[in-house]
Amino acid sequence: MQDHRKTTRSLLCLGVALGTAGTANAAFLDDSKATVELRNFYMNRDFRQSGAPQSKADEWAQGFILKMESGYTEGPVGFGLDALGLLGVKLDSSPDRSGTGVLQRDSSGQPSDDYGTAGLTAKAKMSNTTLHVGTLQPIIPVVMRNDSRLLPSIYRGAWLQSKEVDGLTLDVGMLDRTSYRDSSNYEEMTVFTAGARNIVLGSAKTSDEFMFAGGKYQFMPELTGSYYYGGLDGIYKQHNTQLVHIMALGENQSFKTDLRYVRSTDDGGSNVDNNAFGALFTYKLGGHAFTGGYQTLSGDTGFAYISGGDNMLINLLQINDFGNEDEKSWQVRYDYDFAAAGIPGLSLMTRYVSGDNVNLAGGAEGEEWERDTDIAYVVQSGPLKNLGMKVRNATVRSNFGSDINETRVILSYTLALW
Questions:
Q1: Deepest in the core among 10, 191, 322, 366, taking most CB within 10 A?
Q2: Spatial contact of 145 and 155, defined as CB atoms under 8 Å apart
Q3: DSSP single-letter state for residue 112
Q4: CB–CB of 366/318 below 8 Å?
């Protein structure tokens, strides 16, 4: 605990140093910025299935997310330094109510009074190509940070990104550690195996090398395509493709098509074998958005991705992703932006996903459904401008997993330090 407090203090000292250094590298200082996000997070998860080992998980905590980004030094190759500090503080919890993922806990289920981590990222830039080495928060199809709780998950590694060609973004990199959203430690990575994924690992349960490479290209203003490769050494390999088309239909109207296909196979240390196809279709009319989607998985296992992160399945929801072996699922969703009704900052989302055909032990078929509703508001003006408030509610029912009623209440405010 003392170590991460010292690291956070060191980051604050670094910020002071940046603000008081000389002017030899003016852009390094003049283009720097720092923010702290205050995130208050309450989560209640009520387990409704018969014989549940825990009746509910219920926790409340305050998070602090400090981000500092320098500019780049002058010259053909510019150099810079970024810093990230994460701190979570318990407001209410107990061993019999822990396990929400909001707070760190020990092997006995005892939640920590506080926890956190910190990291530095060295960066270099030449033309429109950048290299980042250190703490990373990638959001690309084959590896995505998870930011659904009090603090985000983060990774450690190197990431080279190039935008030298207009409309084309290329990425290549390697990760060797991850820090989970409810952890103070950097750990080796593994594949997510929960649910009815039926993924079995060999003797190597974790890996210290995740390689990724790929790119996204905008063929025309309304059409974008991408391909990415990701491989967790000794566990699985993955090829991810996506095509997005947005067709304008007139004033305040559009139709969006989002097609995704992912092929995952083993890399010598698992039985991973999965094909995942998803299609989303969204019609927008003014402040309304109507979405329908279908997702189907095939192969000998469910969908593979790094445990603790997020993935690109179209039916990744508040609780489930419907990524079990042979699962087929469909989605209906409705969004409304109240700015169209004269209330900017207020939004509503509700959706329902039903999945079936899950391959269970003994030849049984698994079925599940999830219903989500989000109501969010961001204050638009006045002394509380940019204060965000969100209520998230979800209900899950399954014949092979947990039956859950869940509510999350999130208050967030980002303060610019300079």
A1: 322
A2: yes
A3: P
A4: no
Q: In 3D, which of 125, 171, 149 has the Cα closest to residue 65?
A: 149
Instruction: For residues 324 and 215, give the distance between their C-alpha atoms in angstroms, rounded to a whole number.
Output: 28
Q: For the segment 321-333, what is each residue's pLDDT rounded down to a tens digit?
A: 999 999 999 999 9
Give the SS3 label for residue 278. Answer: strand
Q: What would the two tokens of residue 63 be?
A: 């998070």
Instruction: Measure the CA angle with vertex 213, ends 294 and 125; round to 5°.
Output: 125
Inter-residue contact 325 to 365 (CB < 8 Å): no
User: Pairing state of beta strands 404-416 and 210-220?
Assistant: unpaired
pLDDT digits (tens, 9 = 90+) for 112-142: 999 999 999 999 999 999 999 999 999 999 9
Contacts of 32 (CB under 8 A, 6+ apart): 18, 68, 69, 70, 71, 418
Nearest to 252 by CA among 283, 222, 281, 286: 286
Distance CA 8, CA 390 (A): 28
Neighbours of 160 (CB within 10 A): 16
Distance from C-alpha of 112 to C-alpha of 252, rounded to nearest angstrom: 49
